[in-house]
Amino acid sequence: MRSFIAVGVLAASCLSKAAAGIPDKIYGVNLGGWLVLEPWMLPAEWAAMGGQSCSNCADCIGSEFALVQAYPQTADKLFAKHWSTWFTQDDVNQLRAAGINTVRIPLGYWIVEQLVNRQTEFYPRGGIKQLQRGLQMLKDAGIQAILDHHAPPGVQTPGQSFTGHCTSDVEFYTDYNYHRALVWTAVMTALSHLDPSFSSVFAIEAVNEPIMDATQTPGYGDFQKNFVEVIRAVELVLGIPVPGLTLDVKVSTANFTSALSATVSTSSLFNAEVKSALAEAVPILVELGFELAVSSIFNFDMASSPLKKTRESLVANFMDINWQYNNPANPADAKIGPQGYDNHLYYNFGGVADPNPDAYLTSICNLPRVQNDAALGNSPLWFGEWGLPAQFDATDDFLNKWADAQKLAYSQGKGWIFWNFKVEMSEQAGDLARQWSYLEGVKLGYLTADPSQVHDPNVCAPYVNATS
């Protein structure tokens, strides 16, 4: 039996301990391009794998789905090579040296392979072991992790390679795919608490960037509530305290999958959809217990309740209410236990400020998103994606100011997570890394060596309360 002592070990570094709980202030990066591959971030490698680039990614081999469909015999090997080389121990060492305390890990639903319909869905296999490898390295470095359901089943937004399948056919907002997402959530929650390699995971994000128009996301509010209940049900079965919630049945077995099955059968605390998702997670967890060598799935000591001493409830993480419009459901209404909220802000795609330096700085220096979200119960808020790209040719001087101003604005909330930790350095990628790579931004001096610091704490002084 694996010892639960490993779950509570403190990382020997100056960074926040690798245990559940939101850091006091998040200074983070996304591990984009790794377990959900976005071709624009690594164009040379994508081409070498057999992928293609085109203006509409649905018209060519422009996503994981399309590449696996095109090369079914070799795709798993191609992705295994990519996964093992895109995120390595050297990357972890650089992130630790840069003072990063949090990573957000974009994941596809297909990392739980049992959820994939192989007749109609085409995704690579083997990613779960790579996730385990990466989380172990991060844990050893004292870096905490958010598991981000970046590409849920059915595709949550059209025409984007980050969904894993570039298509206009959006089917996530259906009972079938909501259900698969809940099973995924149960599996990830159990692994986060039972696999020592996952012990730096402090949050699970329900879905990345749903369609902004809430009239096009039917049932999303109910899904949010079920998402939280699935997480809390798993935790209660494990004996992990959940604020404001108590299990109404006694757990009398040390076999987690048996305990989960028994709870589904006898508890009246959760609705039928949540119970069904938990039940479907059981055989998947049995398989993963063997595949990942997580013996605690089969035998954990309920008598001494070690998890009560070493784990806290995970943070249920949602895109904030202001991500959507047209009367969206408020994720705060789903709250049971700790909850956090995510907002993404990119100026380079337009629609935020006029395309010039003064307008950008005036906008960011007067940003009200933290306060607006807090007024609707969406707190703590962190900014889970942002970067340095602009709609104009940005000078080095501007990028210094732009980095400082964004960090100051986002630090009014719980903190920030830069997109991305790195991008490809190649002739095909051109100058991409200058504004999209955190590690390159530090080397170039736009981003400070200490993420908690800025070059000029008064960068916003000329712009506060100004109008663009």
Q: In percent, how helical is the residue content? A: 25-40%
N-to-C span: 62 Å
* pLDDT averaged over residues: 93
User: Which class do the helix and strand fractions yield?
Assistant: alpha/beta
Task: Report Rg.
Answer: 22 Å
The strand line-up of the biggest sheet is: 1-2-3-4-5-6-7-8
Low-pLDDT sequence parts: 1-19, 302-306
The helix-strand sequence is EHHHHEHEHEHHHHEEHHEHEHH
| Count of individual beta strands | 8
- Shape summary: globular
What is the strand content? 5-15%
Biggest sheet, open or closed, and with what strands and sense? 8 strands, parallel, barrel
How would you describe this structure to a colleague?
This protein is an alpha/beta fold and 468 residues long. Helix content is 35%, strand content 10%. The protein has helices at 43-49, 64-70, 75-86, 89-97, 127-141, 175-194, 220-237, 256-266, 272-291, 306-310, 357-365, 369-375, 396-410, 433-436, 438-444; strands at residues 26-30, 102-108, 144-151, 201-205, 315-319, 339-344, 381-385, 415-418. It has an eight-stranded parallel β-barrel, surrounded by four helices. α6 (175-194) links the parallel β3 and β4. α6 (175-194) runs parallel beside α7, α8 (256-266) packs antiparallel against α9 and α11 packs parallel to α13. The longest helix is centred in the middle third of the chain and has 20 residues, at 175-194. It is globular, with a radius of gyration of 22 Å. 51% of the residues are buried.
